[in-house]
Prior knowledge:
Layout: H1 14-41, H2 74-82, H3 90-95, E1 117-118, H4 121-130, E2 140-149, E3 155-162, E4 170-177, E5 187-194, E6 209-218, E7 225-227
Amino acid sequence: MTDLYLRYVQAGLRPYLILSGAMLGSLGLVRGALAVRAARTGAPGAEEYGRPAEDGPDHGHSHAGGPRVAWLLALPAVALLCFPPPALGSYSAAREEARRAEEYVGTFPALPADDPLELSLAEFGSRAAYDSGYSLRERTVRLTGFVTTGDGGTWYVTRLRVACCAADATAVKAEVRGAEAPETDAWVTVTGTWHPRGKLGSAAAWPPVLDAVTVRAITEPSDPYEER
């Protein structure tokens, strides 16, 4: 199994995907083996029980193509295997409403002394908006995500957070200032310093702002989501 499954579900669900795939494959092999054996022995297949006899008065059409139509159900699965859809991106983030669970201003645990600080966008946003100890002040921060844009040339480094799978994804982002916006949906690592704004805990403090020092293009990571 490749890392493509990480576009849709959390890494911890990998064993269940493998198990369910193996079970479905086994069922398909068993059904195929039964059909082959029935064809060789001349015994009626499961789909023939309950039908009128070939020479009966109620038999007026052929059943040769009936069961074979069921194979068309495999086409969507084959299409997904051959052309896997991309991970959720800027469109999903743009559709995310600016609603966040109520949080209270308070102190946060101390940050490591190393610079630059490698933070998730969720942690950066929480500390920027709610940390009364201002632990991000005068610290160099490094954030990684994909590019989304707003009005007036504003752009953001953005990440989607999932609890279970892509269906429950929610967006977290930070506004980037001091650097030109890369192409939308491009993955970047931005290094810079926190730009305080607004009263802690207020809507004016969101989204957090990063004054960029460097913006480096990267390839999309194998696991594009942040865990909740």
